């Protein structure tokens, strides 16, 4: 559906925003790599890697803005870090210390929900509840392609449409529900399905954070302007297995895995901004220092 | 023919309690299928939409997971949702949201939120209901940590339980017996109040045997007890809650009578009666003069209307069981 | 003829009005009386044809399922 409230120019990120996008992507990548290493050491019980999802997560979270309430699934680590969840807090539940390591109120980033798509109904109910109390929030709910097969996802889309709830559904479609490929999961895109429920939607590639940022900015403007839901489906690549317990080599061709790695959104965007002269060696060195300090803090806390 | 003076029945007491709660607490919201315009299929919420508005007395989509799932989100937002499931047998699509979400949200948030959320479920049979309209699935939720389960058998108890439930800070499932909604004549009960909103209630004092029961069948148990007097003096404990169970009241009663029969309308196997019998075996064995017994339907689905009399436990079966145990 | 069952455990109803008067001829399905249960207004219809010979209750009284409601001289 056409959205006219913001033009392409108005939703394109400025240079500061572009550097911010890259910095968050690099930090998220560093935390993810450290988490996978800690899992191999036996420090983390499990880790659902978000490598390959960084552009989708950072672009959508930055576009939604700090005032939005985020209701995640369980893989939105880059969103969590962007919202102010510390790396230590983020890893706590995967080390078995708690079911949620952060204060959800402080960062307006709710606890992870492991039962697929259950959180989609919470997000809609939360949006309705806030509106009833005169505290209308803009709610972003994250869900994966596999989870869209759950009845709760369809129920949540219908409820959001009927109630005209201020909810942005962000579907990260990485093409795999663990081992079941997307073409065996659905006959239409999720974006097309949303329109069947009466929800405006867009489908965008998720390798470039600027594309995601622009699409989600337009979606946010639609939600705030129309007080109605919107769904953005972002096609991403899953670089690692579903979790560290998954062996994707069993069901995925080495070519496919190699292609996904080659299309890495983090290195791709870093190269682009470097090529455009937006970031230089000193900038990268500063981010690398930040990441190294985070990794040291994580090993100190957990290893 | 009965007289024209009518005392409030269960449905009317619940209606009054909900109206009071809506009046007192602006955070309270009712959600359920057909509860607004129609006033509910049992008319329990009659007049509430007109009085409090369609925003607070919300006609829900016909999807039980939607009802409870959105209520979890509403509770997170600071509201107090009171949901209605239309019939007990339609609860199952909402089980995931209740068990994996509502029951666990407070813990998942490390106590930073303590959402009050009530789910009212019309329950039990005895009125020739069609398939799935006569179930008694309270034991299902009684097993779930984090969910409290109430089974009131009078309007007065339902009123007390609802007022307690909306302020508890964790989910409560309230089972309301359909066949008592509009019943206006019940066997007399002792006026003794319950010790607390969560306590069981001794509804008839007796010396020879304790019957622990709950829900609609409490009336049949009381009728059997009155029939047996004065030959056998039966004490009747209306549990009112099946999770958590008020075992103190049961054990004290068994301490006085020395005999325990548990009667319920839900099937016997792995049920509430088994839990009570096990607890009494563990903590009240010395007081027992004979084995604890359970009287409940066999493990089978609630039958079509023509066969429900064979399925249900009636006054005669209760009397016979008490006589066998006190012989 | 007796007061019918109303379902869902509803055992009583308020007799609101007689539609068929004493002496009226009714066919099966004709409305004889209107009663109000706790849930809704319900029409009591003739179970068979005949001439209504007596009302057993006056409007405004509460009826119980199974009570005699009216007398019918069948064809």
- Our estimate of the beta-strand percent of chain C is over 45%
The biggest beta sheet of chain B reads: 7 strands, mixed
CATH class of chain C: Mainly Beta
CATH superfamily of the largest domain in chain B, by name, is: Thiamin diphosphate (ThDP)-binding fold, Pyr/PP domains
User: Which geometry of chain B do the CA atoms define?
Assistant: globular
Annotation keywords:
heterotrimer, A: 303 residues, alpha/beta, five-stranded parallel sheet, two-stranded antiparallel sheet, 11% strand, disordered N terminus, B: 327 residues, Rossmann fold, 2 domains, seven-stranded mixed sheet, five-stranded mixed sheet, 12 helices, 34% helix
Please tell me about this protein's structure.
The complex is a heterotrimer of chains A (303), B (327) and C (75). With 303 residues, chain A is α/β, with parallel strands linked by helices. Chain A has a single domain (8-27, 50-302), classed as Rossmann fold (3-Layer(aba) Sandwich). Chain A contains 13 helices and 7 strands. Chain B has helices spanning 10-24, 48-52, 64-76, 95-102, 105-108, 138-142, 155-165, 218-228, 247-257, 272-283, 308-311, 315-326; strands at residues 28-32, 57-59, 80-84, 117-123, 148-150, 171-177, 201-204, 209-213, 234-238, 241-243, 260-263, 293-295. The two termini of chain B are 39 Å apart. Chain C has a single domain (12-65), classed as OB fold (Dihydrolipoamide Acetyltransferase, E2P), CATH 2.40.50. In chain C, 0% of the residues lie in helices and 45% in strands. Chain C contains no helices and 7 strands. Chain C is globular, with a radius of gyration of 12 Å. The model of chain C has no long low-confidence stretch (mean pLDDT 91). The chains are: A alpha/beta (303), B alpha/beta (327), C mainly beta (75). Chains in contact: A-B, B-C. At the A-B interface, α7 and α8 of A face α3 and α4 of B.
Brief write-up:
The complex is a heterotrimer of chains A (303), B (327) and C (75). Chain B is an alpha/beta fold. Chain B has two domains: 10-180, Thiamin diphosphate (ThDP)-binding fold, Pyr/PP domains (Rossmann fold, 3-Layer(aba) Sandwich); 201-326, Rossmann fold (3-Layer(aba) Sandwich).
């Amino acid at each position: 559906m056409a959205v006219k409230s913001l033009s392409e120019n108005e939703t394109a990120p400025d240079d500061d925003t572009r550097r911010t996008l890259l910095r968050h992507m690099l930090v998220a990548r560093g935390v993810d790599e450290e988490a996978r290493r800690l899992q191999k050491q036996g420090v983390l019980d499990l880790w659902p890697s978000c490598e390959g999802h960084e552009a989708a997560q950072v672009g959508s979270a930055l576009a939604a803005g700090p005032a939005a309430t985020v209701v995640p699934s369980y893989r939105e680590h880059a969103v969590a870090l962007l919202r102010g969840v510390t790396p230590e807090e983020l890893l706590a539940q995967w080390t078995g210390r708690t079911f949620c390591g952060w204060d959800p109120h402080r960062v307006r980033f709710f606890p992870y929900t492991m039962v697929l798509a259950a959180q989609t109904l919470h997000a809609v109910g939360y949006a309705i509840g806030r509106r009833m109390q005169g505290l209308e929030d803009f709610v972003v709910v994250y869900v994966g392609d596999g989870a869209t097969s759950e009845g709760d996802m369809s129920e949540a889309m219908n409820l959001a449409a009927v109630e005209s709830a201020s909810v942005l559904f962000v579907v990260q479609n990485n093409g795999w529900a663990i081992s079941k490929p997307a073409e065996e999961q659905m006959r239409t895109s999720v974006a097309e399905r949303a329109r069947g429920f009466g929800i405006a939607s867009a489908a965008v590639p998720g390798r470039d954070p600027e594309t995601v940022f622009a699409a989600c900015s337009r979606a946010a403007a639609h939600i705030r302007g129309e007080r109605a839901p919107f769904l953005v489906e972002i096609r991403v690549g899953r670089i690692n297995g579903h979790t560290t317990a998954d062996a994707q080599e069993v069901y995925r061709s080495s070519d496919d895995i190699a292609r996904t790695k080659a299309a890495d959104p983090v290195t791709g965007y870093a190269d682009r901004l470097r090529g455009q002269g937006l970031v230089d060696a000193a900038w990268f060195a500063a981010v690398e220092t930040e990441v190294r300090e985070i990794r040291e803090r994580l090993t100190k806390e957990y290893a | 023919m009965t007289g024209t003076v009518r005392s409030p029945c269960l449905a009317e007491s619940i209606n009054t309690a909900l109206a009071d709660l809506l009046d007192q607490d602006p955070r309270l919201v009712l959600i359920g299928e057909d509860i607004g315009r129609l006033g509910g299929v049992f008319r329990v919420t009659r007049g509430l939409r007109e009085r409090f508005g369609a925003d607070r007395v919300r006609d829900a989509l016909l999807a039980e997971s939607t009802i409870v799932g959105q209520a979890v989100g509403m509770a997170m937002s600071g509201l107090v949702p009171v949901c209605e499931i239309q019939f007990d047998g339609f609860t199952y699509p909402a089980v995931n949201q209740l068990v994996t979400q509502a029951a666990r949200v407070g813990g998942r948030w490390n106590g930073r939120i303590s959402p009050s959320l009530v789910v009212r479920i019309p329950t039990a049979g005895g009125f020739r209901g069609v398939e799935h309209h006569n179930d008694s699935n309270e034991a299902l939720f009684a097993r779930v940590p984090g969910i409290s389960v109430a089974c009131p058998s009078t309007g007065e108890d339902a009123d007390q339980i609802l007022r307690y439930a909306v302020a508890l800070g964790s989910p409560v499932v309230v089972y309301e017996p359909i066949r008592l909604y509009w019943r206006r004549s019940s066997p007399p009960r002792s006026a003794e109040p319950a010790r607390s909103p969560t306590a069981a209630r001794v509804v008839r004092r007796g010396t020879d045997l304790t019957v622990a029961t709950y829900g609609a069948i409490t009336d049949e148990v009381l009728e059997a007890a009155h029939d047996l007097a004065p030959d056998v003096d039966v004490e009747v404990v209306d549990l009112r809650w099946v999770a958590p169970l008020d075992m103190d009241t049961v054990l004290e009663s068994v301490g006085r009578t020395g005999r325990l029969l548990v009667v319920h309308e839900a099937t016997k196997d792995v049920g509430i009666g088994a839990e009570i019998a096990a607890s009494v075996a563990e903590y009240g064995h010395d007081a027992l003069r004979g084995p604890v017994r359970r009287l409940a339907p066999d493990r089978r689905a609630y039958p079509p209307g023509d066969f429900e009399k064979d399925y249900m436990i009636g006054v005669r079966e209760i009397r016979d069981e008490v006589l066998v145990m006190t012989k | 003829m007796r007061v019918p069952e109303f379902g869902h455990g509803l055992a009583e109803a308020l007799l609101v009005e007689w539609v068929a008067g004493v002496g009226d001829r009714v066919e099966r399905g004709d409305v004889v009386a209107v009663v109000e249960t706790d849930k809704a207004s319900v029409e009591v219809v003739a179970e068979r044809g005949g001439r209504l010979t007596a009302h057993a209750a006056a409007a405004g009284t509460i009826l119980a399922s199974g009570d005699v409601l009216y007398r019918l001289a069948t064809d």
